[in-house]
Amino acid sequence: MAIGLKTKNALLSVLMLTGVIGSAYEATQLWQIERFNTALKHNATLPLDQYPLTEKFAAAYRQGNSGEYKHAIQTYGQLLEMAPDNEMQARVHYNVGNNLLRFGLSRRVNDDGSLIEDARYALMQARASYEQALRLNPALLPARFNLDLLLSILPARMQQSEKEQSGVQLSNLPIGLP
Fold it and tell me: Gene3D superfamilies, per this entry (predicted)?
């Protein structure tokens, strides 16, 4: 009986030690994530150099927030080459679409109320980016919402003319990229 009790106590001690070590590991991970998010919120340099993908994503995000939409789109384009899976590529396309949408909306309109060519081009590219994001990840609801929003603000004749040109590539980049 005494041997069985000692074995049970030893087993329970090992399980408890494993639980304490696991809890300490999870607490360390949460602390690193919180430190990373705090640095990102305050536009500080990111403290962890072992995450080049996340660091590039954060740089593109900061560029977009500061109004440097073209630079942000270029950085997101570089990020597409680094993206390991379709879900990350979908998120990159979504963010490219967001920056193109913001760029297109920040452009002024002509005297007659029509969109200038830069704005029209940016909005069409934003649409292509959102569609590409949805092709890669149909469950990406923010991309679907932004695409619906974009389609609701586009002039009707612009949407129809784009449908007619669906086989035409807008630039030397593949459709969906800025």
Answer: Tetratricopeptide repeat domain
H or E element, residue 172? none
Helix, strand and coil percent figures for the chain, each rounded to 5: 75, 0, 25
Q: Please give the C-alpha separations between residue 68 and each of 19, 63, 102, 106, 136, in angstroms, as whole numbers.
A: 47, 5, 10, 12, 26
Average pLDDT over every residue of 141-145: 93
| 77 close to 96: Cβ distance less than 8 angstroms | yes
Are 5 and 65 within one domain?
Answer: no
Same domain, residue pair 90 and 159: yes
Which domain, by its residues, includes 135? 52-178
pTM of the model as a whole: 0.62
One domain for residues 100 and 149:
yes
List phi, psi (to 5°) of 28.
-65, -40
Digit-coded pLDDT (tens) for 29-38: 999 888 878 8
Residues 67 and 7 in one domain: no
